[in-house]
């Protein structure tokens, strides 16, 4: 399966990609740990089947100090003992916010209450934004058939502006 288009070499695609990257820089200003954000992005990317994004967030999670055990178990976080209550709340939000068509009411009140129990308003806004943005990035990757396996951590560091 070959990629359909390289959005990074297309003028408009590169412009949109830079904007998405800059939104993610704003999200990173929240007081959420890099490891939590990578776990959330990894889980959403797994659900959406974006090979490129799974590659990116697996490697970035490892670079943020997330153990191989936790990276490997994020797909089965509900059946694992290696995630905190706060991480479980964030992962539930990620799943419910991603599977909107499957969850008749979107994010449940129970999940929302758990998120608010563990995260302040800015952190919650960051989590909601993170889920929205990784879903957008996943759609770009899946639609254009971006392949996983070639990401080098930090390769987009100069992309801002």
TrEMBL record:
InterPro entries: AhpD-like, AhpD_core, CMD-like. SUPFAM superfamilies: AhpD-like. It comes from the Bacteria. Pfam families: CMD (PF02627). Residues 25-96 form the Carboxymuconolactone decarboxylase-like domain. This is Alkyl hydroperoxide reductase AhpD. It comes from Streptomyces diastaticus subsp. diastaticus.
């Amino acid at each position: 399966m070959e990629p359909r288009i390289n959005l990074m070499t297309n003028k408009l695609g590169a412009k949109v990609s830079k904007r998405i990257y800059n939104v993610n820089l704003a999200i990173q200003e929240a007081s959420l740990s890099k490891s939590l954000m990578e776990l959330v992005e990894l889980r959403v990317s797994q659900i959406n089947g974006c090979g490129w994004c799974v590659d990116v967030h697996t490697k970035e999670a490892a670079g943020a100090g997330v153990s191989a055990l936790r990276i490997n178990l994020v797909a089965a976080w509900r059946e694992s003992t290696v995630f905190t209550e706060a991480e479980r709340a964030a992962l539930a939000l990620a799943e419910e916010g991603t599977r909107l068509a499957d969850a008749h009411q979107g994010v449940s009140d129970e999940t929302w209450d758990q998120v608010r129990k563990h995260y302040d308003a800015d952190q919650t806004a960051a989590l909601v934004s993170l889920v929205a943005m990784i879903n957008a990035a996943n759609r770009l990757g899946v639609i254009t058939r971006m392949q996983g396996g070639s990401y080098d951590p930090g390769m987009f560091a100069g992309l801002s502006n």
